[in-house]
Amino acid sequence: MRALVRSGDRFFHLAIAAIAALAFLELILPLASVVWVSFFENKIINFPPKGYTLDWYWNAWSMPRFRDGFLVSLQVGVAATLISMLVGVPAAIFLARTRFWGREVIQTVLLGPLIVPGIVAGSALFMFLIEFEVFTGVQVAQTFAGLCLGHSLIALPWTIRLVTASLVGMNQQLEEAASTMGARPFTVFRRVTLPAIRPGIIAGGLFAFVISFVDLEKSLFLVGPGTTTLPIAIVNYLEWSIDPTIAAVATVQIAAIALVMIITDRFFNLTRAF
Amino acid sequence: MSNITLNKVTKRYGNLVTVDALDLEVKDGEFLAFLGPSGCGKTTTLRMIAGLAIPDGGSIRFGNREVTDLPPYMRNAGLVFQGYALFPHMTVADNVAFGLEMRKISRQQIKPRVMEALRIVRMDHLADRLPRQLSGGQQQRVALARAIVYQPDALLLDEPLSALDAKLRLEVRTELRKLQQDLGLTTIFVTHDQDEAISLADRIVVMSNGRIEQVGTPNGIYERPANLFVAEFIGGSNFLKGELDGADRFRLDTGQVIGFGHVGSGSNCSTVSIRPERIRLRSGSAGSGTDATGHEIRATVENVIYRGNLTEIVVGAGDQRLTVHQQNGFDQSARTFSPGDAVVAEWTPESAVLL
Question: pTM for the full model?
Answer without folding.
Answer: 0.79
